[in-house]
Write a structure and sequence with these properties.
The radius of gyration is 19 Å and the shape is elongated. The chain contains three helices and ten strands; from the N terminus they run βββββββαβββαα. It has two domains: 36 residues, no CATH class; 133 residues, Nucleoside Triphosphate Pyrophosphohydrolase. A hairpin with an 8-residue loop joins strand 8 and strand 9. The strands form three sheets. The protein has a four-stranded mixed sheet with strand order 7-4-9-8, sandwiched between helices. Strands 1-2-3 form a three-stranded antiparallel sheet, with no helix packed on it. Strands 6-5-10 form a three-stranded antiparallel sheet, with no helix packed on it.
């Protein structure tokens, strides 16, 4: 397992503005050939931002999730635009989705979502020292916000409308950071 498989062919199967599906043919060091399909994100990835309006709360947004055809609670999220750093995208998304600028924007971690078949990465940030500074966004409807007590993250994690794994992970990271 010390040598990476050799890619013998890559073919685009389908593409959208968000991702491309590729068929990838590989040859492993032992001579075995295999075919995989993978989702390749169009762009550098995404950000998740946990806004802290004060020392005891985080701000959630309620947003339509077309994948499950329902509204979900979560943190500020969005894709990183070409030419943007993850920090710039986090700052922009924060202003677009909740109308606030962060005095402090701390990178907590970068995660992959499904590395077995996707190159999708997400940078998770904690935003504090918030001040009103809205920026017009691209949301099709106004987003509802809700402040949630940090000491009730265990309740938040059990909700049926708080299921984005990146957001769930963010609650653990924030709780650990604030200890």
């Amino acid at each position: 397992m010390s040598r990476l498989p050799r890619i013998t062919a890559i073919e685009s199967v389908a593409a959208t503005p968000l991702f491309e599906i590729q068929r990838v043919d590989l040859e492993f060091a032992n001579g075995q050939a295999a075919r995989f399909h993978r989702l390749m994100g169009q762009g550098p990835g995404s950000v998740v931002v946990v806004p802290m309006p004060d020392a005891h709360h985080v701000r959630l947004i309620k947003e339509y999730a077309v994948g499950f055809e329902r509204y979900e609670l979560g943190f500020v999220k969005g894709k990183i635009d070409d030419g943007e750093t993850p920090q710039q995208a986090a700052s922009r998304e924060l202003r677009e989705e909740i109308g606030c600028r962060a005095g402090t924007l701390q990178h907590l971690t970068t995660v992959t979502v499904t590395p077995g078949y996707s190159n999708f990465q997400s940078w998770i940030f904690l935003a504090s020292e918030l001040s009103h500074d809205p920026l017009e966004g691209d949301e099709p409807e106004e987003l509802e916000t809700q402040d949630w007590p940090i000491n009730e993250f265990d309740v938040l994690r059990t909700r049926q409308d708080f299921t984005d794994a990146r957001c769930v992970l963010a609650t653990y990271l924030v709780a650990s950071q604030l200890k």
